[in-house]
Amino acid sequence: MLTVLQEKLAEAHGLAIAAAVVVDKVEERTLDLELRRRLWAMQEDAAEVRARCLAVEQALADPLAEELLAHANLTREHAADLTAAWFKAGTSPLRAWSFLAMGEAGEVATWAAVEALAARAQADGIAGLATWALPLQRRHLELALDGAALLARQADPNGPRWG
């Protein structure tokens, strides 16, 4: 059975796995090259988060490492369900970036919880990962918020809705 800290770590890992799909969906709807570059950088960062989460989890050894990965995959599946519901035909770029911001906010909240829990548990490996990941996720949230605001400024507020 996972501890609260281990569960949150696995959730953070699962959200990083799901980020690849979300970023791909947002990129499909994004024409602006600078915004696409931001997405590519976020994609690279998410791969690094996944790798670091996996390394920390594997250091905990089986069967715990397997249970952590299973919970990460369950979180990824839940995120995939939300993504599928949000990204139906007719999803505008602005709506896509709004979803990205929601996902990034969820990652910030999860990593903030991991950081606080790891500090209290004196789990140095997990605490170090959270100390690295939390500022990264905060930057991602700012990028997503800025992207949504940019797209909103470019939209005709009185025009017909997209799609």
Walk me through this protein's architecture:
With 163 residues, the chain is mainly α. The chain has one domain (4-153): Up-down Bundle (Ferritin), CATH 1.20.1260. It has 5 helices and no strands. It has helices at 4-28, 33-59, 64-86, 93-121, 124-154. Helix 1 (4-28) runs antiparallel to helix 2, helix 1 (4-28) runs parallel beside helix 3 and helix 1 (4-28) packs antiparallel against helix 4 (93-121). It starts with a helix and ends in a 9-residue tail after the last helix.
Secondary structure blueprint with pairings:
Layout: H1 4-28, H2 33-59, H3 64-86, H4 93-121, H5 124-154
Helix pairs in contact: 1-2, 1-3, 1-4, 2-3, 2-5, 4-5
For this structure, the CATH topology is: Ferritin
Series of secondary-structure elements, N-terminal to C-terminal: HHHHH
Q: Rough shape?
A: elongated
Largest sheet: none
Q: What's the CATH H-level superfamily name?
A: Ferritin, core subunit, four-helix bundle
Strand segment count: 0
Which structural class should the secondary elements be placed in? Answer: mainly alpha
**How many helices in DSSP terms?**
5
Percent helix range: over 70%
Mean pLDDT: 94
Assigned CATH class: Mainly Alpha
Strand content: under 5%
Unreliable stretches (pLDDT < 50, length at least 5) are none
- Quickly give the CATH architecture: Up-down Bundle
**Rg from C-alpha positions?**
17 Å
Structure described in brief:
The protein has 163 residues and is mainly α. It has helices at residues 4-28, 33-59, 64-86, 93-121, 124-154.
What structural keywords apply?
single chain; 163 residues; mainly alpha; Ferritin
